[in-house]
C-alpha cells in the first residue's frame, strides 16, 4: 500500500504519451499532481488571474470539462489520485475519480467478467481509458452493472469528490473560491 509520498514518487516514473483522438488530445500516463499543502482562499486578484471574466460578486458559469481548462482540476478526469476502498473493502489508490467511479458500476457483482472489468479499470493508464472500459461494459453487458447503480451512483461520486477535495487542499481552496458561481 503506497502512501502519498511513495505515490507521488511512483507517478514521476510513469511515461506520458499523447495521441490525437478526433478533435481531442488523449494523454496516457499521468502528469504528477503538485499539491500546495497550504490551505488558502485565493484573493480577488488571484481569482481574476485564473479567470478574468469571473466576478466573484455575480453568479457565473464555470466550466471544467477539459482538464486543461482554468478549472479543469475539478474534472473527474484530472490526474489527482484518490485513496478509496476497492471492491473488497481494502483501500486502494485510484489514479483518478473517474477510475473509481467507473469501477464502482461493477462493485459486488459476482461474475468473473465484471470482476475482470474492475481489474481492467484499476489498471487503466488514463481516466479516458477507464471511462471507455466502464462505459463499453455497461453498454454491451448491462446485466453486469450492479443492480442498485441508478440510486448509488450519486453517492459514489459524492464520496469520491469529497475524498479528492479533502486530499488536495489547493483544490479545496479553489473550489471554495467559486462561491456564488454555477
Given helix and strand content, the structural type is mainly alpha
Strand order of the largest sheet: 1-2
> What's the CATH class label of the domain at 39-158?
Mainly Alpha
Known CATH architecture of the domain at 39-158:
Orthogonal Bundle
- Helical fraction equals 40-55%
SSE arrangement, N to C: HEEHEEHHHHH
Uncertain runs with pLDDT below 50, 5 residues or more? 1-14, 36-40
Report the average pLDDT across residues.
79
Reported for the largest beta sheet, the result is: 2 strands, antiparallel
CATH topology of the domain at 39-158: Tetracycline Repressor, domain 2
Count of DSSP H/I helices: 7
Describe this structure in words.
The protein has 182 residues and is mainly alpha-helical. It has a domain at 39-158: YbiA-like (Tetracycline Repressor, domain 2), CATH 1.10.357. It is 42% helix and 10% strand. It contains 7 helices and 4 strands, in the order αββαββααααα. The strands form 2 sheets. The chain has a two-stranded antiparallel ribbon. A two-stranded antiparallel sheet has the order 3-4. A hairpin with a 5-residue loop joins strand 3 (82-85) and strand 4 (91-94). Helix 4 (112-122) runs antiparallel to helix 5 and helix 6 crosses helix 7. The chain is globular. Mean pLDDT is 79; it is low at 1-14 and 36-40.
Amino acid at each position: 500500500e503506497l502512501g502519498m509520498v511513495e505515490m507521488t514518487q511512483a507517478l514521476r516514473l510513469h511515461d506520458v504519451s499523447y495521441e490525437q483522438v478526433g478533435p481531442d488530445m488523449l494523454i496516457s500516463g499521468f502528469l504528477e499532481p503538485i499539491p500546495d499543502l497550504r490551505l488558502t482562499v485565493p484573493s480577488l486578484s488571484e481569482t481574476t488571474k485564473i479567470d478574468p471574466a469571473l466576478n466573484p460578486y455575480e453568479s457565473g458559469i464555470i466550466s471544467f470539462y477539459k482538464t486543461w481548462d482554468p478549472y479543469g482540476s475539478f474534472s473527474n478526469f484530472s490526474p489527482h489520485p484518490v485513496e478509496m476502498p476497492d471492491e473488497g473493502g481494502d483501500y486502494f489508490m485510484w489514479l483518478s475519480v473517474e477510475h473509481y467511479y467507473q469501477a464502482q458500476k461493477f462493485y459486488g457483482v459476482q461474475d468473473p467478467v465484471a470482476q475482470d472489468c474492475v481489474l481492467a479499470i484499476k489498471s487503466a493508464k488514463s481516466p479516458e481509458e477507464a471511462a471507455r472500459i466502464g462505459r463499453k461494459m455497461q453498454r454491451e453487458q448491462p446485466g453486469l452493472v450492479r443492480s442498485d447503480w441508478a440510486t448509488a451512483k450519486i453517492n459514489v461520486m459524492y464520496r469520491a469528490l469529497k475524498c479528492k477535495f479533502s486530499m488536495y487542499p489547493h483544490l479545496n481552496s479553489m473550489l471554495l473560491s467559486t462561491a456564488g458561481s454555477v
